Amino acid sequence: MFKAVIFDLDGTLTKFNLDIKAVKERIGGGGSEKNILDYIEGLGEAERVEAKALLEAYECEAAMSTELNEGVENLFTFLRAGGTKTALVTRNNRRAVEIACSKFGLSFHAVVCREDARPKPARDQLDMALERLGVMREEAIFVGDHLFDLQAGKSAGIRTGLLRNSHANGILKEADFVLDSMDQLIEMIR
Predict the structure, then answer these.
(1) Contact between residue 98 and residue 125 where contact means Cβ atoms under 8 Å apart
(2) Torsion sign, CA atoms 20, 22, 23, 27
(3) Angle between the 45-65 and 94-104 helix axes, to the nearest 10 degrees?
(4) What is the DSSP letter of 168?
(5) What percent of the chain has pLDDT over 90?
(6) DSSP-assigned letters across all residues of 39-72
(7) 176 vs 16, 20, 27, 188, CA distance in Å?
(8) At what angle do helices 124-133 and 147-156 cross, to 10 degrees?
(9) pLDDT tens readout for residues 119-157
(10) Is the pTM of this model over 0.85?
(11) Burial of 83 (0-12, 13-18, 19+ CB in 10 A)
């Protein structure tokens, strides 16, 4: 039996609407194969501060204009009624998370943003979420939509599922379960 569900935000609970490529080009990393957070960390001090501020501004703007994915409202109604603990683990910045959660009335027992621990694909954020929830890894499931989510979940030893989308299509077979809409999780938890 699952006592907790840990979620990714962008692309999982909400539509992914941040143009990462445009942000990377704006900060000078358009040709880099590194993910945007790793690219920014490799910059000099002044450039890093400026790039982080720019990324955060884009993320907050995306949070203001995003929409919930199909089935999220039904799923959260079910989870709240059953007393299931929930956590949010995201590579996003805290302010953007607050904007999105406020916009949709989403609340969690634990929220772990990139400011709190090494971001996915590292397992650190998931370990922190488990600790904050007070549950063992075998008592939780993690739902994401991206390779980084899958890698973090597997590394942390948590049963990990993916929401089917263009980011996840090539890795679905590696997930413990696959969802076409978020409310499909209801039957799995029952």
Answers:
(1) no
(2) positive
(3) 10
(4) T
(5) 89
(6) HHHTS-HHHHHHHHHHHHHHHHHHHHH--BPTTH
(7) 22, 27, 36, 12
(8) 60
(9) 999 999 999 999 999 999 999 999 999 999 999 999 999
(10) yes
(11) exposed
Helix residue spans in the chain (DSSP H) = 20-26, 36-41, 45-65, 72-82, 94-104, 124-133, 147-156, 184-189
Cβ count within 10 A of residue 113: 20
Place of tokens 């490799």: 42
Contact yes or no for 145/8 (Cβ under 8 A) = yes
The predicted structure's pLDDT at residue 169: 84
Q: Which residue shows structure tokens 């009335």?
A: 105
Cα pseudo-dihedral 26, 32, 36, 41, rounded to 10: -100
DSSP label of 106: -
Q: How many CB atoms are closer than 10 A to CB 143?
A: 24
Residue count of the chain: 190
